Amino acid sequence: MGNGFRTASKLLRIGLAAGRSTPGDRLRWWGLFGAAAAVAFVVLATVATLATYDGRETRADARGPVVDLGRDAALLYRQGGDSVGGRPVSLVFVRPLTAGAPVPAGVTRWPKPGEVLLSPELVRTGRGEGILTRYGKFAGTITTDGLVTPSERIAYVRVGDGAPRNDRRWLPVSAFGSNGGATGEMVDQPAVSSPLLALWALAGLPALALTVVAARVGSRTRDRRGGLLQALGGTWRHRMIVNTGEAATPAALGTLTALVPYAVASVHSTRLAPTGYILDHHDVRDAWPLAAASAAVSLLVVLAIVVGTHRIHRDGTSTRPASFSSRVPAWRPALCGVGVALVLTSQYTPRKAQLFVFTSGTVVMWAFLSSVVALLTRRLGSWLAGSGRRKGHAGRLIGGRWTHAHPGVIVRLALAMVIGIGIVAQMQVWTSRLGVHSQAALATHQRIKDTVIEVTPSSMTAAQTGRFRSALPVGAVLLSRTFHDPGPPREPWVTVTGTCRDLRVLRVECHGSTTAPTGGNAQVEEMRRWWGGFKFVPAAPAGVKADGTQSLLVVAPAPGQLAAVKQAAFTLPNPSVQVEALGGNWLGSSRSHLPNWIQLFGITGILFILMAGAVSAAAEFVRIRHALAPLSVLTGRRRVFRSVASWHLTVPLLISTVVTGAVTAWHSVFFIALVKEGSVSWTVLTLGIAACAAVSLTVGFLGARAAAREAERWRPAAD
């Protein structure tokens, strides 16, 4: 036992010393530092996501209403909706029935009739839209323990005594503390698997790729050391201890560094740009035990990758390292095929599982596509070497042999470009998933802005309609829209009612009981695009029925009047009212927060990929400048450096770019066919391929330049 411990301790010290003295040690040290920090960052983001979901559910339940259909109800409760800056707002209308009516979490007392309590984020974002007076007199803010998240937009509106107790649209409530999933942001909260899947697909995979690249930096020396240990009788455990000791210091420091942003988020609520979401520091702080354990696991994963990428033949017949630089393991292309198979079969799985299967296949495919490229380039290397030998082309011969002998080098260089193009393409496709109606809403907003506003109350009397008209901005036209559905076989139609004076503003001429649009009015044309054929009726708009077939239309003379119209609508004694620009409900969906989350995860992943590409390229420059330098003695020409670097680096990387571009195009089109929405931006894809092609040329040029400079200083050495 004692001898085993002393041997392990000595091997660990050898590894620690090797980490400080190995050629290229600084590059690998910083590479492993960044890789460990990246993996730990994604793992800790996973912990924060799980903790946030738990905290959201707890706070939502604390404010959820307990419906009592008996005679013990203490207040009437009703939900509504609005929007501020294109983001949804949750409205809760209440009418206490007793002096001791219960209050939800976050509310100390109910405001007076006509007053309102607003969340801090709603006050911040809606101040410019008159939010402090839109629903009533501002009476204070809701505390954070009553908010699902600090960035939630919610308001409690105290109505007068006009809410009838026998109106079924009002819920009788006796207490608060349950069913919180039906209020505020919890109404449309996706399952926790959705953000975690996007996080690991867009950021987790690049972090693992960075780890693999960093682990293999300067691998030739470690492979030789591993072979020496085996020749001396060392087992895989002895090699594991040495490799672990070499990587332990930078990996541990990188993991600790990743804990810094988590610690900041646990003491201060952090806004995540560009989503606008505020991470509640209470949730992050409460998950510290899980975060510490997860950080330790992430460190072990990094060390396991380091050990796993430096293997030796197990049969004991050879001391040659079985590293990825000498061959492409057959299981890697096979796993790429498994990923492609998952993508292809995702459309045949149950609807709820399609996106999960597709994403899983995507991750596997992108992770091992570079191995398929390396396999192809290795065969290309054999062909290039043969061609160079037959034609006497030294650069092609040497570059081809290097490519055949070291496909792992191409894998590490191509990995960043392959995953990078994939991430950029997926970000573009995901953010383009608007659907037909959302695209129409965006087009309408671009043409007429918010000059056509639809007001949909549950009901409205003629007197209330007149009062609403008097509160509208100067120059606004008030119309009413009625939807008629006689049933099959007749088609439904729409009528728009307004006074002749108002209709003339829209360039609609009145002749007794008939109308004749003269054309040329942009607002009328947009109405026609949304509703199809409709006719105008010259009459003063009366009240609105409660059957859901009628609504009011406000045509403003200029954009920017939406807030004023909402101000007029919500001052009516009718809390159930919806006010939005033409197509506004679809416009809100097109501006949903999902594209912002995709951008957040995708940009993080791209940063990790850029780090992987930089580390891999720098390591290759170090290797190629030492290996090519002696050629200057044999050839006497500097041009050979450029030729070898081009055939060994530039040509395989260009092939990788072409293959990746083709696979990305197919993958994006298949995804759109699967979800039946979105579009492929061929411009973005072309720019991505062009950027990777430029990188391929640059890597070859810089590699040749580094070798040429090293050749000027090179002297034979007895090594």
Task: Write up this protein.
- The chain has 719 residues and is an alpha+beta fold.
- The protein is elongated.
- It has helices at 2-21, 25-63, 120-126, 131-134, 193-215, 219-231, 236-267, 281-286, 288-308, 331-345, 351-391, 394-405, 407-431, 435-448, 462-470, 500-505, 522-531, 562-570, 584-590, 594-628, 631-635, 639-675, 682-713, and strands spanning 65-67, 75-84, 87-96, 115-118, 137-141, 154-158, 171-176, 270-272, 277-279, 452-457, 477-484, 493-498, 508-511, 514-517, 534-538, 550-555, 577-581.
- It is 59% helix and 13% strand.
- It is built from 23 helices and 17 strands.
- A seven-stranded mixed sheet has the order 1-7-2-3-6-4-5.
Radius of gyration: 33 Å
Which structural class should the secondary elements be placed in? Answer: alpha+beta
Helical fraction equals: 55-70%
**Major beta sheet, strand line-up:** 1-7-2-3-6-4-5
Give the number of domains.
Answer: 4
Q: How much is the average pLDDT?
A: 83
Number of strands: 17
Estimate the global geometry from the Cα principal axes: elongated
Task: Return residue spans where pLDDT drops below 50 for at least 5 consecutive residues.
Answer: 315-325
Largest sheet: 7 strands, mixed
End-to-end span in angstroms? 39 Å
Approximate strand percentage: 5-15%
